[in-house]
Structure of DNA-binding transcriptional regulator AraC:
Amino acid sequence: MTTALRIAQGGFGRLALLDMDTPLVSHAHSQCHVIFKASGADSAFYVSEERLPVTDRTAILVNAWEPHYFYSEPDFPRTVYLALYIEPRWLATLHDPLRLAAHPRFFPRPCVQITPRIRKLADDLIGDLMSPIPMKQERLEIALFDLMLAVSEQFSALESIQDLMRPEGLRLPDSRIQRALNHIGDHLGQALDADRLAASAHLSRAQFFVRFRRCTGMTPHVYVNTLRAETACRRLAQADDRTSLGRLAEDLGFPDQGHFTRFIRGQIGVTPGEYRRVVQVY
């Protein structure tokens, strides 16, 4: 069973130290996502169906809204991961060019050999997170920014902005798909099957799937699940939102708490109850 050692959440996004040995379904995040091995056995993540090694010398780089998943063989040795889910808007407030971290091709390669400096920055952050004394917000944000800046300068497309602006690198807008996206955001607590979504966009089911993937890079199912998971994480972290897990499940369109618990575990690795118990809000 996966255990959350630390979870921090704030305007920067969130980060987690996860002792993980259970699978994650194909999912995505609205943030840019970076995964480091913290300790334990070497392992692998899958990004766009490509199996990529997670070792002391590599990092997994996942663009915003890019589907990825984790599969662990039965009885395989455990691994602790440092997972960063960083808001591009937060990065941009500190260094304006990093607003491009929201671009679907910000990281050209999903797996990279990290430099000794990046390894040290990651290890320093891991050490601070494991301290029994919670990190001060300023220290945490400085450590996060230094690490993300180092990763971005070394491995992103920041130095080739023109390449990011090429038509093949952009997801083209479509007013009908935008209607469907608005419908999803407004109705997360209701059934959102493909037929309903296609109808909201005034498209046939087949046309809807083609256009949706062209505009978002993912299926409607993954997109809906992403919004539900991120809404759940946000509400679970709010000290003034002590809604029962059963009510939260209902608010997000699940038939019961059991379905909701299995969904969250498949998306982020831990149960809603453990997330609420462990998360440190900044």
Q: What stands out?
A: DSSP finds eleven helices and eleven strands in the chain. The chain has a mean pLDDT of 92. The first helix runs from residue 88 to 94. The chain has two domains: 3-164, 175-272.
